[in-house]
Amino acid sequence: MALVPEGLRELLSWLEPGSQVVSAVPLAPDTGEGETRKGGGYGAPLRVTVRDARGASRVLVFRTATSNVFGHDRRADRAEEMLLAWDTFNAVPDHVRALDVGTILPGGRLLSLREGGEFYLLTTFAEGRMYAEDLRAVAERREATRRDLARAEALALWLSRLHAGKVADPDGYRRAVRDLVGHGEGIFGMVDGYGPAVPGAPPERLRRLEGLALDWRWRLKGRERRLSRTHGDFHPFNVVFEEGPGTGFTLLDASRGGRGDPADDVTCLSLNYVFFGLERPGAWAGLEPLWRRFWQVYLEASGDREVLEVAAPWLAWRALVIASPRFYPALPAAAREALLGLAERALRDERFDPAAAEELFR
Question: What are phi and psi of 114, to 5 degrees?
């Protein structure tokens, strides 16, 4: 008999008052023999025999999820697996019934979430000015101030320090690349959000871009040592600078588990200099020095010249995000054309050249 998890007896007595746990036995994924025997699954279930208050026995299954490389390596993935099961099991005819879903507390107690709906998160508030407002001001006056240059440099230096934290997890890098291409928030998901008649982004163009990006998934194999600590969504709407002339800032909304290729963060922020430079005629005169300073400082501080060899698919993803009519419905077709054109060029080249962005404005 397996050890009965702490809190399971309490949970069952709440679900079925007067019940008692008689036994708990681990369930193997397959008890058969031969070549078709299954060697593993996605969890560690227990077969639990329960006797109710009238003496009748009933068999239940207590399921917990385990970490694996198939998209279950993060705790959030495993929570999603359990919540999806709760939301769907009872809607499928002739399926086993889901009785409860919850989380295991640090002391071993079980906290039921069966009455829960959407989840919430409570955070502190970041005082200051969103970096996007800085970039809008630069675009409007067509000139970067000394403070603007200092802030671009501060962001590049901060990223170089963050990315210095390497993570030895080859499967984690492959997960990051897989999510880049195939996740709902990645390239495939962004493409699906465009619709059939978006100016500057006809379906055939998006299909070609997808194909180029898919090829990069294979080109990135063997780069697993690049896995680093990352922010995951390092754009100007997630950076809040302190008021005044300083360069201190607070970040919002870190994403994708905080691990990935440094190219994710670097292309995310830098491409926004191009984006804001497309806002109005002449705006690039102010944004171009920031683009150049950011890349120069990051490459020097990090020593990571390889980032230029892997940047293309990450840049293409971000181009699809900021060119998306769902996120920026007022974006002119010419700006979308320029962003996707830069992405296509990067995907076709062996190495990304930051000077390619400058050619968009000549």
Answer: -60, -25
128 dihedral zone (left: phi>0; alpha: psi -120 to 50; beta): left
CA angle (155, 275, 317) in 5-degree steps: 85
Summarize pLDDT for 341-362 with one digit per residue, the tens: 999 999 999 999 999 998 888 7
**8 Å CB contact between 349 and 312:** yes
* pLDDT of amino acid 40: 57
Q: What angle do CA 101, 120, 162 make, to 5 degrees?
A: 110
pTM here is 0.88
- pLDDT at 150 exceeding the cut of 80: yes
For residue 20, what are its two tokens? Answer: 């008692």
Query: Are residues 255 and 179 in contact, defined by beta-carbon separation less than 8 angstroms?
Result: no
Nearest to 287 by CA among 148, 79, 90, 131: 148
- 8 A C-beta contact, residue 40 and residue 20: no
**Is residue 97 over pLDDT 80?**
yes
Q: Cα(138)–Cα(133) distance, rounded to whole angstroms?
A: 9
Q: Cβ atoms within 10 A of the Cβ of 280, count? A: 12
Tokens of 115: 């009455």
- Tally of CB atoms within 10 A around 69: 13
Convert the pLDDT of each residue in 62-92 to its tens digit.
888 888 877 778 888 888 888 988 899 888 8
Rg (CA), the chain: 25
Q: How confident is the model at residue 284, as a pLDDT?
A: 96
Stretch (H or E) spanning 140: helix 131-141
Q: In whole angstroms, give the CA distance from residue 267 to residue 239.
A: 15
Using alpha carbons, select from 96, 127, 147 the residue that is nearest to residue 290. 147
User: How far apart are the C-alpha atoms of 254 and 329, rounded to whole Å?
Assistant: 24
